[in-house]
Design brief:
0% of the residues lie in helices and 50% in strands. The chain is mainly beta. It has a 6-stranded mixed β-sheet, with no helix packed on it. The N and C termini lie far apart (40 Å). The model has no long low-confidence stretch (mean pLDDT 97).
Length: 115
């Protein structure tokens, strides 16, 4: 079964940075467009950034444009999300999955921004 493991979350102050990682296994990772999703308390899960299978095309939700950068290393079956200039509203559990999502969800990684 496909396994996705997110890591790199933590507690940072307003304006700080976090770098998230997503390790994928039991999947031909390089075939799939991938995305980072997040879910804040009381809110539905939202897709915040996507990256094409080859890594050449990226898209971001308006609220994170210019602050977040998605990337991937297909040789390592790993995807990243560099998050800079963090705001309180970025506080959420962050997940990775294909876009559209079809794999079992991982446990996510909590990112908390203190004001």
């Amino acid at each position: 079964q496909v396994q996705l493991v997110e890591s790199g979350g933590g507690l940072v102050q307003y304006g700080g940075s976090l770098r998230l990682s997503c390790a994928a296994s039991r999947i031909i990772f390089s075939r799939y467009r991938m995305g980072w999703y997040r879910q804040a308390p009381g809110n539905p899960r939202e897709l915040v950034a996507t990256i094409s299978s080859g890594g050449t095309e990226t898209h971001y939700v308006e609220s994170v444009k210019g602050r977040f950068t998605i990337s991937r290393d297909n040789a390592k079956n790993t995807m990243y999300l560099q998050m800079n200039s963090l705001k309180a509203e970025d506080t959420a559990v962050y997940y990775c999955n294909a876009d559209p999502s079809w794999a079992p969800w991982g446990q996510g990684t909590q990112g908390t921004v203190s004001s």
